[in-house]
C-alpha cells in the first residue's frame, strides 16, 4: 500500500531526527533543511502534508523562510496541508501563517505525541478535501465543462440527466448566448448515444433550397447540379443526435418534412422514392418566441408540440447572477491557458462590475469580454478598467453597496418571476410590504408586465416539465 507522504522542513538536524523516528511507521517521511531543498523535494514528491519551521536560517532568526515557502507551496498546490512550527513566543507570525492558508501551527518545544495528533488530523482534512474536489471535478466533466452554480443551472443539470436517457425530442429555448448549444451537447453526452454522431445544423444559416438537400440528402439527378447521390445530415446522425439550431427559421415546406420524420421516423432524399428508416434523436433550439410565430402562422403548431415533448428554458444570465463569477473565473482559466499567460484573478471591484452589468449578450458576451481582457491586460489582478468598464462607473469604496443593489434587484425579479408578476404575492414571499415592493420596482425600473405575460407560457411549461 502507498503510504501518505509528509515533508518535514527544519534547519535543526535533531528535530528532524526525532520527528522522523516518531512518524516513520505511519508515513513516507521526507525532510529538508533549506528553502531550496524543500521546494525541490516538494515539486518532486508532492507530499499531502508539510511541516514548516518558520525560520530556516540559523544565523538570522528574523528571516522567515518558512513563510515564503508556505506561500510558494500553497500557490502551486492549494490542497497541500501545511503545519507551521514556530518558536514559543511567536504567536503573531503563527496567526499570519494561518491567514495565509496554513491549517495549523505548533509552538516549540516539540512534544511528539501531540504533534502526531495534529499531523494525523491534517492528513484527514487533506483527504476529505481531495475527495470533495474530485467529486466536483467529476460533476463538471460529466457536464462537458458547463459551469453553473445557480439554483437554476443546477436544476437544469438534473433535468438534462433525467431526459438524456430517453429518446424524446427536446426543445431548448433561450436568448442568444445563454448556452443552448452547450446544453444540447450535454444531453447527447449524457445519453446512451454519446459514442455515436452529434450533428449540428443551423437552420438559419443555409438558404431554403440548399437546406432541404443538406438535411435529407438527394439522389443523383434530383436537380440541376446533383451529379451524385448525397446523404443528408439526418442520415449522418443515424444512431446519434441531430441538433437543429434556430429551428424558428425553418421554412414551412421543411417543417412538414421534419414533422413527418417525427411521426414515423422515416425520411426521403430529395428526388428519392424509397423511404429510409432512421434512428435519430432530435434536439432543437430557438431564441425566437415560437408561440408568437404560431399565432402569425409562420411556425406549425403540430410541429411545435412534437418538438416540445420536453421543453428546456435556458434563463438569461441576468436572472442567474450566482453564475457570473464562477463563469468569469472559468473563462479566465481557459483563456490564460490558451494564450499562455500566467494565471489571472479578478479584483473585488472587477467582480462588482461584472455582477452589475446587465449582460444582454449573456454567457457569450461574458466569454468574449474575458477573452479580450486576457489578451490586452498585463496585470495579474484584473481591475474594472481591464474589463472595459469605465472606472468612474465603479467607485472602488462602495463595492459592497453595488453588490447589495445587484442582489436586491435580482431577488425582486426572481420573486416576481415565480409569482407571475403578482405584486402582492411576491411581496409576501419577500417579507416586505406591497408599498415597499413597488418602491423597489420603480427604483430598479423593473417591468412587471413582462412577468405577467409569462403566466400562461410558464404554466404550460411547468406542467410539461413535471410530467417528465
Ligand atoms: N454554462 C456554461 N458554462 C461554460 N460555458 C458556457 C456556458 N454557457 C455558455 N457557454 C459558452 O458561451 C458561448 C455561447 O454558448 P452557446 O453557443 O451554447 O449559446 P447559444 O444559446 O446557443 O447562443 P445562440 O443563440 O447565439 O446560438 C459558447 O462559447 C459556450 O461555450
Ligand atoms: Mg447556438
Give the overall form: elongated
Bound ligands: adenosine-5'-triphosphate, magnesium ion
Count of domain modules = 4
Largest sheet: 5 strands, parallel
CATH class of the largest domain: Alpha Beta
Q: What is the CATH fold-level name of the largest domain?
A: Rossmann fold
What share of the residues lie within helices? 40-55%
Unreliable stretches, pLDDT < 50, 5 or more residues? 392-398, 458-468
Query: What is the end-to-end distance?
Result: 47 Å
> Given the helix and strand composition, which structural class is it?
alpha/beta
The amount of beta strand, in percent, is 5-15%
Query: Can you give the mean pLDDT?
Result: 87
The radius of gyration over CA amounts to 30 Å
Mind telling me the CATH superfamily name of the largest domain? P-loop containing nucleotide triphosphate hydrolases
Count of helices? 19
Number of distinct beta strands: 14
* Strand line-up in the sheet with most strands: 2-1-3-4-5
CATH architecture of the largest domain: 3-Layer(aba) Sandwich
Can you describe this structure?
With 468 residues, this protein is α/β, with parallel strands linked by helices. It has 4 domains: 5-139, Rossmann fold (3-Layer(aba) Sandwich), CATH 3.40.50; 151-315, Rossmann fold; 318-394, Helicase, Ruva Protein, domain 3 (Orthogonal Bundle); 401-467, Arc Repressor Mutant, subunit A (Orthogonal Bundle). 50% of the residues lie in helices and 13% in strands. The chain contains 19 helices and 14 strands. A 5-stranded parallel sheet has the order 2-1-3-4-5, sandwiched between helices. Helix 1 links the parallel strand 1 and strand 2. Helix 10 (252-264) crosses helix 12 (301-307), helix 13 (324-338) packs across helix 15 and helix 17 (423-430) crosses helix 18 (434-443). The radius of gyration is 30 Å and the shape is elongated. Adenosine-5'-triphosphate (ATP) is lined by residues 145-148, 174, 176-182, 287, 327, 330, 363-364, 367.
